[in-house]
């Protein structure tokens, strides 16, 4: 995009001049557009939470039982990792705005690294579940198994939502690699950092969604284990 | 002769020499809108042909030309094309693109490259949707609503259609997003929200629905796909799921989608009525705000599609009353339009004829909608031809009629030519008569118990189906004739000049007709209301080179 855009001037009948906002170089417009796009993410995950909540009321006991079998340590570690990665991404944006391009890139690399660790841990978790016979199209989740409906729905939604969230993490990594290429090419600079801003915003939403996913899947069954549980 | 947007364009990538590639890569909002129109009307006629095939089958009881399974696929194809490929993207993608930036004095939309990408995303969606016609399992036979659990168990190719609907939904979201930012950021200096033309208000309210409701159906379709691949059981009662949940999630989007279709259409009406009454619109603010409140209330009424699906009585009552409430802002608009005409200098040009026809057809469509929003009446009329007639009166007799009205209204703007008014009026009367003859008998047949989506019926319903058939023949002839008149107009019509209708809004104040690549020669300062008339003539006049007021 060319940077030599000069805004037009409109003159009213008294002769006062008013600057015209063009679509070129509209930093605020770029931010607004991406915020609106993030609304759609919220609505999308919101609908899934709605489904989850509905089945939680229908099969509450099954949900608690299934939740108590998830690995809270791995899930918790991942939560901390994502929170830290949101910090590093935010720092990279601050450094970019302050003119420290090298430091900014370092922070983006750190975010990518944390995201990869997140995905690795997620993979370990899913493997664990696969080995104990809980996976899509496998073992207990097959139509023929005797696992109660509620637990099947819980795990089904668990794989669906963490899976879709994982896809967002992968997209995020791709976006950050692209961002670094754009920075290297001199297309994202402290003066023109809308892309950086929006990717940071994206990463914030991705971690924020996890902040809701984590308690809903991992924590609702936690109390039962400590108290010894009131189910069989 | 100055250059128009047909002569030159900006492109997304590179500087292609060939005219064809310039069109394929164009980021000019006017060209993109025209391409949408070309594709959509092609699909529109495919869907019309499918509908005619069904009418033909229904000419007599028993099986004539197609069997029941093919009939199921035919009404699914008809619904999917009409809803997802034509009417949902329809007015925003065509006229939102072509006219909205001109109306607010912008050079283009906020994200022209995204606009280009969105168009191709839409084309991709169309291709995926139609691809399943050519696979072994054939097109989906579920109806356009994909109700679970049947959509999860049928052998036809539902997956393709679900993916297509998702991709088209994505395109719809991005269009809405683009328009929201455009309207917020690129209005000419001085143009406050309450100085915007009402079509822009319609597009604005619509864009919010596109943005906030479409993701819900997007994820619902994804869940249905996952369900089909992995058998999780989310909507499958055999696995503990609840199929009614699918209906809820589906209609949380798809009912607001109805308002998403009609609001920009109402916007077109609000442009045409004052222009051809040569009079300032009555109740500008109430029309603008009623668009917003229809969009708002429209979110909360989806339950009226589920009266017979199993829902608490209290919920039914609440949904029923909320549905009645939508009729209030809609009624306000109609009274405003009629009050605008009162005492005006009415010019019965073709666009005005279409608008007046719509006042009749949409009123029938809207009021019959209120009758089936009543819980008790709906138990009798749910899934009958009454419902079919109702939504065709509202959608075809409302949205599509106004789309045609807009097409005649902005035709000189887009092409720089004028069509033959006399022939265009004949086309309108053919359409209007054919339309009413086609759908009005269905109200009666439905009331007497003719169920929808059946390919066979009892002999006593034959008279209604035959009347409908005659109507269909007249209507389709009218449609073909209308497009013929318009195409002839484009090829051989007289040059129209920049403002043939004596309209007041900014899109008619162009330096040339058709408009040049970057629209107005200068961005004007807007210190006037959108529809200022005095003694039947526009008040505001511009010097089209400097865009300074000279009145």
Any overview of this molecule?
The complex is a heterodimer of chains A (232) and B (551). Chain A is built from seven helices and four strands. Chain A has helices at residues 27-58, 60-68, 72-98, 101-131, 149-184, 194-219, 222-227, and strands at 9-11, 17-19, 134-135, 138-139. The radius of gyration of chain A is 23 Å and the shape is elongated. Chain B contains 17 helices and six strands. In chain B, strand 5 (542-543) and strand 6 form a beta hairpin. In chain B, helix 2 (29-57) runs parallel beside helix 6 (112-131), helix 9 runs parallel beside helix 11 and helix 10 (243-277) runs antiparallel to helix 11 (284-298). The model of chain B has no long low-confidence stretch (mean pLDDT 94). Chain B is 64% helix and 2% strand. Chain B has one domain: Cytochrome c oxidase-like, subunit I domain (Cytochrome C Oxidase, Chain A), CATH 1.20.210. Chain B has helices spanning 19-24, 29-57, 68-87, 90-98, 100-103, 112-131, 150-153, 158-185, 198-230, 243-277, 284-298, 313-341, 350-373, 375-381, 385-415, 421-447, 462-492, and strands spanning 417-418, 494-495, 533-534, 537-538, 542-543, 548-549. Chains A and B meet through helix 1 and helix 5 of A and helix 8, helix 9, helix 10 and strand 6 of B.
Topology readout:
The complex is a heterodimer of chains A (232) and B (551).
Chain A lengths: L8 E3 L5 E3 L7 H32 L1 H9 L3 H27 L2 H31 L2 E2 L2 E2 L9 H36 L9 H26 L2 H6 L5
Antiparallel strand pairs in A: 1-2, 3-4
Helix pairs in contact in A: 1-2, 1-5, 1-6, 2-5, 3-4, 3-6, 4-5, 5-6
Chain B lengths: L18 H6 L4 H29 L10 H20 L2 H9 L1 H4 L8 H20 L18 H4 L4 H28 L12 H33 L12 H35 L6 H15 L14 H29 L8 H24 L1 H7 L3 H31 L1 E2 L2 H27 L14 H31 L1 E2 L37 E2 L2 E2 L3 E2 L4 E2 L2
Antiparallel strand pairs in B: 1-2, 3-4, 5-6
Helix pairs in contact in B: 2-3, 2-4, 2-6, 2-17, 4-15, 6-8, 8-9, 9-10, 9-11, 10-11, 10-12, 10-15, 11-12, 12-13, 13-15, 13-16, 15-16, 16-17
